[in-house]
Amino acid sequence: MKYRNYTYIFIIIFIIGSVYFNGSILSMAYIDDNNMFNISSIDVSNMYALDDNYYLDNDSIVDLRNNSYIDYGSLIIDSNSFNNLVYSKLRLKYPKYIVDNVVSNDYKIEYFNDKIDVVYNDESNTKVSLICRDIKDIIVYDCVDDIEDESNGVDVNINSKIVALTFDDGPCKYTREVMNKLLDFNMKATFFELGSMMVNYPEIVKELRDNGFEIGSHGYSHKSFVKLGLNGTLSELEETNNIYKSITGEDLKLVRPPYGAYNEEIKLNSNSVLIRWNVDSLDWKVKDDRYIENVMSVVKDGDIILAHDIHKSTLDGLDTLLTRLYEEGFQVVSVSDLAKARGISLEKNNVYYKLRNA
Length: 358
Description:
It contains 13 helices and 18 strands. The protein is α/β, with parallel strands linked by helices. The protein has three domains: 1-45, no CATH class; 47-152, Actin, Chain A, domain 4, CATH 3.90.640; 161-352, Glycoside hydrolase/deacetylase (TIM Barrel), CATH 3.20.20.370. A hairpin with a 4-residue loop joins β5 (60-63) and β6.
């Protein structure tokens, strides 16, 4: 009995001598199933601090509140919200068909105190970053909110090939589907609308605008500006602008002359930025998927592509056209975004066929 008491005293002294904390060493005592004392120490001096309570240790997390190791996934409170957030952030960067394939792969999470990086195990190691304000409600640690979110729309890389895709003669019954396909590819376009059609589809005009697409004037009746003359042209442009303004509260800034027809008088006195094109898909003529090759065989950086959303065949081939443009490295944007990317100021009483660096 005497020796047993000495043994307990020795254990107690050993525990007291071992349990200390100097800012870098945390010692923990616990009782196992056999009621035997075990001692474990965690050195956090060389670990990355997520906050005051959580530290990174290779593939585990040190939880100082509970004196334990937890796995990486334990930092995520709501996995469904996390997965939805990752998906939405990926969709800001990549077409839907790419993202749907990527998210079927395994991924690893890289934690920082101001963001989370999600890296997928695919051929390109696709990565997306979630900043603090994105994740603060779905993680257990207190993150630092000091990074600005710059991924609130389509990012235009001025060092890549960029083209403007334009659609004439709408809006119509196919326009919403055209818009949705562009959204699936995370691409933008400019829709040159007829006043007479906007009257019939005001809700689509508003949807285009609310989804970040550019809308320009195509006149009211699709009559040639040359045949209308200057006064007739100005009257149609004013009527079309008034219709658009009644729907959106904004003015139209760009004009595409029907048939591309204009003369010097209209150019110099229309008080408009006239946008033509230098790549004609001829979708209005062939009315089948040959229009895709008409584009892809000639398209170059800075081109303005002409298509029409009033043809079902244009809609049917759009997935293929957008896939080929994406896979050949083209960013597809609106006319104004292309001009901005190339440092070109679109000025009134001028005509633009393409938008390339000088």
